[in-house]
Specification:
Length: about 130
């Protein structure tokens, strides 16, 4: 079932969101300071490309640097990516079939706003990072 949902997601919104994360990652990797943010963008882009069957958990070893990095991320790229998830989620919720995919888009908003200090794990093992 996860594969079917992921394929439908890929066609409806996943590919375009992935391209947005890819663009943000490339732009952030231009500077040396932005490389960690670019890597986070690529990681979340893959998650946005194929989200069903995976979830995010907070890392216990993430501290103050992750908090400061998340504030910088929010200003640099998070705001625009979150808006993309909001608009895509609203567009998908217009149809009955798209409602689960719209809800999945809304669930990706917190990750797009604050990605640092989170780890993407399989839903079979959501507590593996702890």
């Amino acid at each position: 079932m996860k594969t079917i949902l992921n394929v439908i997601w890929l066609v409806l919104s996943g590919f375009w969101l992935f391209l947005g994360y890819l663009l943000a990652g490339v732009l952030l990797c231009i500077t040396i300071i932005g490389i960690p943010f670019g890597v986070a963008s690529f990681r979340i882009g893959v998650y946005a490309l194929w989200p069903f069957g995976y979830t995010t958990v907070e890392r216990g070893d993430a501290g103050a640097p992750s908090c400061v990095g998340n504030v910088l991320w929010l200003v640099l790229a998070g705001w625009w990516l979150a808006l993309a998830h909001i608009f895509t989620g609203i567009a998908l919720c217009v149809t009955i079939i798209g409602i689960p995919f719209g809800i999945a888009n809304f669930k990706l908003i917190p990750v797009s706003l604050m990605p640092l200090g989170r780890e993407i794990v399989s839903t079979d093992r959501p507590f593996a990072a702890r």
